Amino acid sequence: MDPVTQPRRAMVVTIDGPAGSGKTTVSKLLARRLGYRYLDTGALYRAVAVAVQQSDANPDDDTALAALCGRIHLDLQETADGARVLLDGKDITGALRAPAISLLASTISARPVVRTFLLETQRTLGAQKSLVAEGRDMGTVVFPHAEAKFYLDADPRIRARRRFEELQAAGSGPSLTVVEQEMVQRDRNDTTRSVSPLKPAADAIRIDASDLTAEQVVGRMLERILPLA
Ligand code: DC
Predict the structure, then answer these.
(1) How many domains is the chain partitioned into structurally?
(2) What's the pTM value of the predicted model, to 2 decimals?
(3) Domain housing 197
(4) Poorest-pLDDT segment among 79-93, 146-160, 167-181
(5) Distance from the CA of 107 to the center of ligand 1, in angstroms?
(6) Nearest CA to ligand 1 atom 5
(7) Whose CA is nearest to atom 8 of ligand 1?
């Protein structure tokens, strides 16, 4: 698809928000419309989780995590099938969404040593060209000087239903009640952890996506971004 605009300089757009708010769909769509790179930072936390799992490191042991972070190399590759995640040169994209990895990613994302390691990785990847960066702390910590910051939220019941439908479509079947309970737990973990908790940046534009389609959310974002691009 043709980009809506050609960037004159490297622009960073950040999209933060809780699980199930529609961040991924919106971020990918927005990046395509702008012709920007899409940076999925959750995938990087998941990639570290894969490395932890493969090496049998104890996810509660900061010394082991620091040693692991010191020896692994992460990279993202744009392909016709979308972004691929490389761990030490090996494509691990297929392993990232496994339920055990989601859980492990959530655990290790609370460890300062992992966040510090990924801070550098994210900024290096982000320095390369204009991008839409999706995560939990994009506007607050990783790209505090981003040109445009958004915080996407939605009613928790709607977020849980969306996640439930995604899981059903993918063939796994926890009940809606279980999905809701897990979401409440994950929201609590993300918003209360001591390092980089999920919260809107002071200068972020908040969008409640409860009653909006992804196209409508992207439309609102473009209204803010296009005058800056
Ligand atoms: O967005 P996701 O579900 O793929 O993220 C995986 C985990 O990583 C999730 O538990 C939250 C965490 N995460 C984070 O702490 N900071 C980010 N910038 C992105 C993700």
Answers:
(1) 1
(2) 0.90
(3) 12-212
(4) 167-181
(5) 10
(6) 42
(7) 42
